[in-house]
Amino acid sequence: MKLLMIDDDTGLCELLSEYLTAQGFEIQSVHDGAQGLKLAQTNDYALILLDVMLPTLDGFEVLKQLRQTKLTPVIMLTAKGEDFDRIFGLELGADDYIPKPFNHRELLARVKAITRRIEHINSLSVPTTNNKLLVNGITVNLAAREASINNSTLTLTGTEYEILALLCKNAGEVVSKEQISEEVLGRRLASFDRSIDMHVSNIRKKIAEHIQAERIKTMRGTGYVFIQGE
């Protein structure tokens, strides 16, 4: 699988390129935000590793412009302790984040969690009309990995789709944040980790463009429940 790394730390790029290449990935590295955006827009990558602090265009602007045309999975590389960077990146549509400095094994685990999803999609047969969920006005096509409302497709990132599908499969039941993190992000939920909250917030906003009534209810201190309706 081909990955794009956009980071102005050339030493880090070299080390990670060597490490991830040994794990079977093909890595392309660039050190400038504008150049990285152009490559991301004109090529198909399985995943993008995107630093926040970049010359010409910062990581937020790269992600914002990228999300106007492509839903390529993105892991943001943020400064340790910068909660604003993490939250803002997730609001813009990042799939996950990892604070610097990080353990290379942890990064590999995050990358594999997302690329396994891509491999699963590629292994699917031609979508059929039988593999669908219809819950309270929302249709989730499990084969095509799409969600729609009144035949209008919701523009969801891969992570957002996975969370919505999980909630719909368990409609009427509480799904804990821990379960969502482990099943969707492929990692245990850390203390004070707001990534699941932000992904759910993004899903709600996109649903609200079509349906005004609440569909995902927060169970304080527990998780979320998709409302089944009448």
Automatic annotation (TrEMBL):
Q: Which CDD domains match?
A: REC_OmpR_CpxR (cd17623), trans_reg_C (cd00383)
* Domain Response regulatory stretches: 2-115
Entry annotated with the keyword Protein biosynthesis: no
Annotated compartments: Cytoplasm
**What sequence ranges are listed for the domain OmpR/PhoB-type?**
130-228
Superkingdom per UniProt: Bacteria
Any single GO CC term annotated in Swiss-Prot or TrEMBL for this entry: protein-DNA complex
Q: Which keywords are on file for this protein?
A: Cytoplasm, DNA-binding, Phosphoprotein, Transcription, Transcription regulation, Two-component regulatory system
* A Pfam family: Trans_reg_C
The record ties this protein, via InterPro entries, to: CheY-like_superfamily, CpxR-like_REC, OmpR/PhoB-type_DNA-bd, Sig_transdc_resp-reg_receiver, WalR-like, WH-like_DNA-bd_sf
Name listed for the protein in its UniProt record = DNA-binding response regulator in two-component regulatory system with CpxA
